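Board notes (copied after class):
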Amino acid sequence: MPNHLSLLGIIHTAISIFALFAGFYCLLRDGKILPLTSHGKLYVLLTIITCLTAFPIMKTGHFTGAHGLGVMVLALLPIGVYIKAIKPFSKLADYIQVFVMSATLFLSCIPAIVETLTRLPISQPIATGPNDPIIQTGLGMLTLTFLVGVAYQVYKLKKSKKSGQTPDIHVNLG
C-alpha cells in the first residue's frame, strides 16, 4: 500500500502536527513566535524533534528536498532564538526574529502540504506528486500567506516601537 507509514513515520507525523499547531497558536496568541515564551519553547522543541525524526524517513531511498527543508529549519531556529543576544544585530533583532521564526513555520508547512495531499484520502490521494497543480497552487498560497503575514508582523512591530512599547509586548493579529 503506497500510503503506509512506518512506526517512525507515524510518530514523526504526530509530532509534526503538534509542532504546527504550536506555531500557529503562537501566531494567533502573540502575533509572532516568541521562542523564549513557554509556547515558543514548545514550538521550537517540537520542531527540532520533527526535523530529526524526518531524517531517517526515506520513502524514495535517498535524501530529498523535504530533508533539505529540515536542515534549513534546524539552521534557522538558533538564529531565531539567539539573535537578540548578538550585539551587532540589536537594532534589527526583533525584525530578524519575526522573519526567521515565521520562516521556520513556513518551511515546515511545505512538506506538510505535499505529504498530506499525496497521501490523503488513502484510497485515492488528491495529488500524484509534488509537481501536481493542486500542490503547486497550495504552495503558492502558502508563500503568499507567509509574505503577507511577515509584512503584517513587521508593520505591527514598527507601530509598537513608535508608540514606545517594548518589542516583546504581544502583537495581537486582531
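Comment from the instructor: Helices lie at 7-30, 38-54, 65-82, 93-119, 133-162. Residues 7-162 form one domain.
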